[in-house]
Amino acid sequence: MLKKGMDTSYLLLTCAVNKNIEVANSIQQLSGVEEATPVHGAYDCIVKTELPHDKLHKLVLSIIRPMRNVRSVITLHDAPSTVI
């Protein structure tokens, strides 16, 4: 369940060849990460986070992108709900 003040985001990672499981295991240990799943296809790892956007920005830029076996990161933010 989403905590008040938190935003759900998904990170789509491209990793070095055969390193997606290692990367997912490392990222799973980070604070604010709900899930890190190695996958096959266009991306190598999908990460679910629940963090305010400023903390997510810091996590991606300071911790995840500099990881040795991470090649690229695409961030998908939750869309705010609207009333029609």
3D architecture notes:
- This protein has one domain: Lrp/AsnC effector binding domain/regulation of amino acid metabolism (RAM) domain (Alpha-Beta Plaits), CATH 3.30.70.920.
- The protein is globular, with a radius of gyration of 13 Å.
- The mean pLDDT is 91.
- Strand 2 (33-38) and strand 3 form a beta hairpin.
- A 4-stranded antiparallel beta sheet has the order 2-3-1-4.
- The chain has 2 helices and 4 strands; from the N terminus they run E-H-E-E-H-E.
- With 84 residues, it is α+β, with helices and mostly antiparallel strands.
- This is Transcriptional regulator, AsnC family.
- It comes from Nitrosopumilus maritimus (strain SCM1).
Task: Please give a handful of descriptors for the protein shown.
4-stranded antiparallel β-sheet, Dimeric_a/b-barrel, Alpha-Beta Plaits, globular, Transcriptional regulator, AsnC family, 36% strand, alpha+beta, 84 residues
